[in-house]
Each structure stands twice: as C-alpha cells, then as structure tokens.
Amino acid sequence: MLMGLDIGATKILGVVASAQGEVLGSVRVASPSGGDQVVAAAADVVAELRAAAGDRTTGVIGVGIPGLVDVAHGTVRHAVNLGVADGYPFSARLGAAVGTAVVLDNDANAAALGAAALLGLDDLGYLSLGTGLAAALVLEGRLRRGAQNAAGEIGHIPVDPAGPRCECGQVGCLETMASGSALAALWPSGSGQPAGQALFDAAAAGDADAVAVRDRFAARVADAVRLVALTVDPAVVVLGGGVAQVGDRLRVAVAHALAEQAAASPFLRSLDLPGRLRLAPLDVPVAALGAALLGKPS
Amino acid sequence: MLMGLDIGATKILGVVASAQGEVLGSVRVASPSGGDQVVAAAADVVAELRAAAGDRTTGVIGVGIPGLVDVAHGTVRHAVNLGVADGYPFSARLGAAVGTAVVLDNDANAAALGAAALLGLDDLGYLSLGTGLAAALVLEGRLRRGAQNAAGEIGHIPVDPAGPRCECGQVGCLETMASGSALAALWPSGSGQPAGQALFDAAAAGDADAVAVRDRFAARVADAVRLVALTVDPAVVVLGGGVAQVGDRLRVAVAHALAEQAAASPFLRSLDLPGRLRLAPLDVPVAALGAALLGKPS
C-alpha cells in the first residue's frame, strides 16, 4: 500500500492508497505553524494511518507541500503560510520521525499527478485554485518541476498594471484576481459557507450582482488557462483546488469565458481551449493521492 | 553534411553545416508569398547549397517556418505572413521538388535547438524577438512542441487590458509591446537603419527620449522573460531574433528591467532572472543551423 500527505496552510490530509490509486483510508488534522510543529503533526497523521491500516505501509511516504520544493534534498523555500524556514530539512526530519523514507514535492505537483492518474491523462496543466493560484505541469508523462523548482508559479505573473498589489511585492499578479482568496474578497460569504459556493448559488438563483462577479472571476481563471495553454500547450487543463469544489459549474463558467475571449481571435478559436478544460475529481483527495503516487516504486 | 532552411516573412536563409554544427556555407533569397511559391524558392536555395557543397548533402533537410507546425504531417497553420494556406502539404511538396525527405518545424523551435547546440545548453527558453514575439522551449533536452503545436505562442498572451489591439484579435497582447514591430513603432528609424540599432545608439548617446523608450521596451521584454520563467522555469532564457542584433546591450537592458521588477519581491529576487539571461550568438544563423540539426540522424 502507498501513503501520501497533502500539507496545506489550513490542514494536513493523509491517505492510504492501493498501488492502483484507490484511496483506502484518510486522516485529517489542522496545520500548525513552524517546521518542527508541521513535522510532528505530519508524523501523527502517519501513525494514525498506519494504525488504521494495520501497519502494512512501510514504503516511501510521499508528501506535497506549498512552496518551491527541492525534491533531491527534501527541502522547501517560500512555504510562508506554514512558517517553515527556507532550507528546513523537512524530508529528513519527517523520515527520522516515522522511520521510513519521505519524498517531498510541491503540493500542486502532487495534485497534478493525482489528477493525471484519476483522469487517465499524461499531458496536462493543473490549476490549483486554492488560497493562492499555482499551476503544475505533467508533460508527456513527466512532471516539469523546473530548473529552480519554480515551474507553475503562474500566480505571480502580473497581467494588469492597474491591478491590486500582491503579497509577493508585485502589482496585478494573476493570483490577486484568480484564486480562492480573490473570490472571497469579491463575494464575502457571511454564512460560513465557502465563498465560491455562495457566489455560484446566488448567481444560479438569478442575483445580477452575483452573475457579474462570477463571470468576472471566471474570466480571470480563463486568463490563467490561456496563459498555460499558450506557453506549454498541454493537451488538457484541469481545474482543481478548493474553488473547484463548486463543481462542474466552475468549468462551464470558465469555458464560457474562454469562448468569449476567443470570439474576436481566429487564432485562439482554433486552439479550442473550452473543449480542453476538465474539472478535477471532487470525491477524491487528488493532492494526497498524488503524493502517495510519488512514493510508488517505479 | 546537414542542410537547414530558415523560412521567414522576409527572407529564406539556407545553410550547409557539419554534423558538429559548424556552418560551412549559406544562401539567402527574399521570401515570396503563397505555398507553391515558397516551396519553389526553397527548392532553389537547396539547389544552390548543393551546388556550392558539391552535391554531398543527401540526408534529411530541416526547415523552420513561422506558424503552428504539425511535425508528423509536415504541415503548418497560421503561417499568415507567408501566405501558406492551413494544411498545405509543405514537407511533401518540398521533398518532391528536391528529391529527399524534409522535416518541418516551427522557426522558433529550430532557433532554440540551434541556440542550445551553440551555447551547450539542454534546458532553455528561447525568445524570438522578430516581427512578432514567440518563445520556444527545450526542456531537459527535448523540444516541447505542445499538444496542438502551440507551445511558446506567448506573444498572444494579453498582459495589459489597456494595451493596443493585436492583429490576432485580442487586446494588449505581449507581442504588441515586446517585438521588433513594437520597437519600430516606438522608435521609427528614418535612416534605413534597423529601429533597434537606432534606438540603442541614441540612448547610448544620451538622448533622454531614447533612454525612456529603450527602458520601456526592455521592461516589456522582461515581462516575457518572467512569464516564461514562472511558467516552465527553464535554466536559462536566451534572447534571439532580429532585435537581438543590437547585441549585448539588449541583454543588459532587459537584465536591468528584471532586477527592477524583482526589487519589491523577495520571491522574484530569489529566482535570479537577470543572472539566467543569455544572448543568442550573433555571428551564426541560429534558426537555419537548428533546422539543419532537425534533420540530423539521431
């Protein structure tokens, strides 16, 4: 059996999966802050998963984490939301704590691998629409991590000089307009319901403001899709991350925006971006499953 | 010996090269318009090259051409500047005319291969700053052409909603601000001198307007570099195409703009984009040489 952990800014989700990619069990805990604290919480998740699985998972454990991950050294940079210091020896510490090898990768990379396996694809761009915006690329069957592990960091490409300032220090970054936090800022949900759900429900009920906000947000996600398509041209672009939990209506809204963008451009139209858009599976934790697949003997 | 042709909107440049990538001879003619006309002119170039080389080049001939090239079928789409119709059987027609197999690829792809060979690199993004703007990607030693042969078409990614309308039908495309034609529009050269040369000379001579225009243009090229770096993260980005003929001062100006963009962003600064910028070799026709390498037995 395989074991994978998806470590995010708010939660750590661990799964046990079969070699065929079927999720057999999962454990979820809140994310603490700080390298040692995250390692300890992750080790607890591993122990719980092992207990539930009867301790049969002794292979390499795969872990996805936000930031620029050096896979060879098992370290991460810019994992600011988790308070993990640049160069903190994450894989080594977690490996020592759980007594088995750990392979660390970027969380969007893990999710892309999971989505590729579940959807049966070998060439795709994965858009992680979570708190932030990141992409991951599986090109002709191989993860493209990049020379400095920064492939897919499209959230920090500026696309509007008149846009808002980004936390990264630049202005008008795609992430400030096409991410879960951007959506929450556009449509604050008072109800405790996720902002995406509230927005898409209100739009479906005919609220004109909600329709306008939804379409504006979908157009910015379409910008991200077009950017990935015109740079690496993956066969398929998969929409994932927390925002994708609103379901297929997200894909429909973004496909509509892509068709509008292409209306005046025969060149764009010929690339059929709306037809190449997919939604990540909603009922499976794709990032944790993809992390588990990272540890699979090849 | 190898033979390669770089077919552009204004000229066809053919070279004969050694298997080691040394250019042994070249022929240049003006580009006609229309599929049959371009094939006939290309066949003339092949005949001249063969005559000069004493007819010893009988292997596969590589050809680079602007547009979305289907390498398997030897056809091209969107080669609008050459008047070649979508789906025109270019490889088959040229192959029949010259009596040997022809392999067709996108001209920026060919140039990227040429630059990779000349600079000894196996992971690079190549920016072709010609009439238009296109990129090409050699990732871990392999050309990334894309699922629909559209990888590297970054010229048609909009980066400013307030920007000019692009010929492709969209608004604010990168190509309208970071290409040879954008530069010529910013700094019309009355002298017959290339616009880039005139602009960089005037800026070097202290003309304040020229300095401002040069820096604005360099900032838009820096946008293109950053976009490629944050999407696929190649080890090196190479500046090529006609605009690069102004020499290393282009690299210096763009590196300066990249450093300015990163000044407010620790994240960008950590990626050291200025230090990863290179200029394509000026004294070698990189696209024609890369085309020749396309035909090299592997």
From TrEMBL, chains A, B:
Keywords: Kinase, Transferase. SUPFAM superfamilies: Actin-like ATPase domain. It holds the Pfam family ROK. It is an enzyme of class 2 (transferase). Its EC number is 2.7.1.59. The keyword DNA-binding does not apply. GO terms for molecular function: N-acetylglucosamine kinase activity. InterPro entries: ATPase_NBD, ROK. Belongs to the ROK (NagC/XylR) family. This is Putative N-acetyl-glucosamine kinase 2, ROK family.
